[in-house]
């Protein structure tokens, strides 16, 4: 199987390591690289001094995407900066590549319908890189909500925050794509997207949103530093709000969910891998996953993607999920910019 990596930063390298683990020498690895940075990482984002990435993993690199696509890869991993996702995904799709696209799908809605049409026309598998769906605590949320044990859902709260200045300790935060609007930066597109995917997966695509984005901390960035949003979900007597928050300010990192129903509540902490469920006044269940390995999410994601490409399994996180999640993010930005409640139907 010939696989093209479009971008070989930290996430691209993680996929490379996992591809070698799962497919071994059965994968011929190609890469399209613009910067050609020589830094090689471990799973924990530690630099492996003196290790040549291409030599270590048997990668043939190209500086021209058309030249790389001319080698006829079957699969392309879109793992470059956010603002280039759609451009490169379209080129790879036109060349007939199945796609795994790292979150988010794109930095805006331009090109989305063209990619959707191409995927349908060429019968391509498009899989979104929302690995947190494979987190055991997220699986607890979905199972608990779908069981109905909490009763009618009345309120959901989600937060995903990290300190930008130390997220990538090996580089100056000011030069990262996360800090720059032109590259598709900001916590909405780079952190909150994971939660928006989980929320629409479990509770459905919301109806509308109001939001406040802030830029007051003194960070040397030209994107929002924090975003707080309230989505309207459900219909009639089954409607409820979802409150979400993200920022580039907090350390230790925060990643948590709370789901409140008429009969009880569920709280999960993805970082400590703990959860607790209350019914009435009684804490009926709690648990933790001390042996959880973060890379296991990426491995399961890869296995599902490859199985979908082979036709052995349905696509678990498809292009439409990426589109709906991107619509939610764009609605947050529009609601803040226009200081009003924005319907998701306005985003297309």
Kindly describe this structure.
The protein contains ten helices and 15 strands. The chain is α/β, with parallel strands linked by helices. It folds into two domains: 148 residues, 3-Layer(aba) Sandwich (Rossmann fold), CATH 3.40.50; 182 residues, 2-Layer Sandwich (Dihydrodipicolinate Reductase, domain 2). Strand 4, helix 4 and strand 5 form a beta-alpha-beta unit. It is globular. It starts with a strand and ends in a 5-residue tail after the last strand.
What does the secondary structure layout of this molecule look like, with pairings?
Blueprint: E1 2-6, H1 10-23, E2 28-32, H2 53-57, E3 59-62, H3 65-69, E4 75-78, H4 85-94, E5 98-102, H5 112-122, E6 126-129, H6 136-147, E7 153-161, H7 164-167, H8 187-203, E8 208-214, E9 226-233, E10 240-247, E11 254-261, E12 264-269, E13 274-279, E14 282-288, H9 295-310, H10 319-338, E15 342-343
Parallel strand pairs: 1-2, 1-4, 2-3, 4-5, 5-6, 7-10
Antiparallel strand pairs: 7-11, 8-9, 8-15, 9-10, 11-12, 12-13, 13-14
Helix pairs in contact: 1-9, 4-5, 8-10
What labels describe this entry?
348 residues; 10 helices; 2 domains; Dihydrodipicolinate Reductase, domain 2; alpha/beta; six-stranded parallel beta sheet; Rossmann fold
């Amino acid at each position: 199987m010939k696989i093209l990596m479009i971008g070989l930063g930290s996430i691209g390298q993680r996929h490379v390591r996992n591809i070698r683990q799962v497919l071994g020498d059965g994968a011929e690895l190609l890469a399209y690289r613009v910067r050609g940075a020589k830094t090689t990482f471990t799973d924990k984002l530690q630099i492996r001094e003196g290790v040549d990435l291409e030599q270590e993993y048997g990668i043939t690199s190209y500086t021209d995407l058309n030249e790389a696509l001319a080698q006829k890869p079957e699969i392309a991993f879109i793992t470059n900066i956010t603002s280039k996702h759609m451009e490169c995904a379209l080129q790879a799709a036109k060349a007939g590549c199945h796609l795994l696209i790292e979150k988010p799908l794109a930095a805006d809605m331009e090109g989305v319908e063209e990619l959707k049409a191409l995927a349908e026309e060429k019968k391509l598998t498009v899989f979104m890189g929302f690995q947190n769906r494979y987190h055991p605590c997220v699986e607890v949320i979905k199972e608990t909500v779908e069981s109905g044990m909490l009763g009618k859902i009345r309120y959901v709260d989600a937060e995903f925050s990290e300190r930008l200045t130390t997220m990538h300790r090996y580089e100056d935060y000011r030069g990262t794509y996360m800090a720059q609007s032109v590259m598709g930066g900001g916590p909405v597109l780079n952190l909150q997207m994971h939660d928006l995917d989980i929320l629409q997966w479990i509770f459905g695509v919301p109806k509308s949103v109001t939001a406040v984005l802030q830029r007051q901390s003194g960070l040397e960035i030209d994107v929002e530093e924090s975003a707080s949003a309230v989505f309207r979900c459900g219909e009639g007597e089954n409607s409820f709000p979802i409150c979400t928050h993200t920022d580039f300010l907090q350390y230790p990192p925060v990643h948590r969910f709370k789901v409140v129903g008429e009969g009880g509540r569920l709280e999960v902490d993805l970082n400590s891998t703990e959860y607790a469920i209350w019914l009435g006044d009684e804490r009926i269940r709690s648990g933790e996953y001390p042996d959880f390995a973060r890379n296991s999410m990426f491995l399961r994601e890869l296995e599902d993607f490859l199985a979908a490409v082979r036709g052995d399994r349905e696509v678990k996180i498809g292009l439409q999920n990426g589109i709906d999640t991107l619509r939610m993010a764009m609605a947050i930005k529009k609601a803040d910019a226009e200081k009003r409640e924005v319907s998701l139907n306005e985003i297309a």
